[in-house]
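Q: Got a minute? One more chain.
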Amino acid sequence: MNQTKDILNVPIPKEQLWENLKISNDFIFAKVMRNPELCKGMIERLLDISIDRIEYPEEQKVIDISKDSKSVRLDVYLKDGKGTVYDVEIQVTNSRNLPRRARFYQGMIDLNEIEKGADYSELPRSFVIFICTFDTFGKGLWRYTFQNTCEEVNLLLNDGTSKIFFNTAGSDGKINKEAKTILKFIAGNKTEDDFTERLELEVKRIKENKEWKVEYMTLLMREREKYREGEIKGTVRTCKNFNLSFQETVHYISENFHLPLQESEEIVKKDWV
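A: Always. Here it is, folded:
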């Protein structure tokens, strides 16, 4: 199959093509978790808990506290019947900043959940969960669970928060068989029980939906455009640092990013400050 190109005329990596997407893709994962039964079943198996019901799976929730603050887009944001909040994220790239991201997500969830003037006791129990296709901490565990503890004595803070990192490439540590089967399915798309077979069927059903394909491709184009804009901006800054003139920079951008001179000039003009 020829590699598909987008509007930037840049080849789309094979693993990002719609027909090749797996449950480890955050778009597909979010769609799977829109199915309340599968969503409930996955959380119950991963955390080894029982949930009476999922009130509302909320797909890729955006929390934006103010126009000047950094917003966050959560892959899967939902609550159970007791009001417990679950943020579930799929992570396939080890950017090595996940602990701090988990901290940021936890803070944003708290700000989103508590109303102005409310008592802190009203903050709900919450879980920030990362399902990673790599070992974040390099200890070989299937699951790493973090809660705030006292350094001086063996004492839990009991602030109602947990940060959990799953490792689909795990080999050690206590974890139930069903959770391990889910993680292995996410890692390799191989079914081993009834539940992972249901997950597989749901992924196939999602990929047959033409509207969701259009939605995915639109999001992909936006992300690639945003990346390209950042790349051009960085190149303009580098040209200035090397004392290239405005016109030399315009020609450099035009040649290296395959843009018409007029368009290149307009772009450089925005960043030429």
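A: The longest strand covers residues 72-79.
Q: Perfect, thanks.
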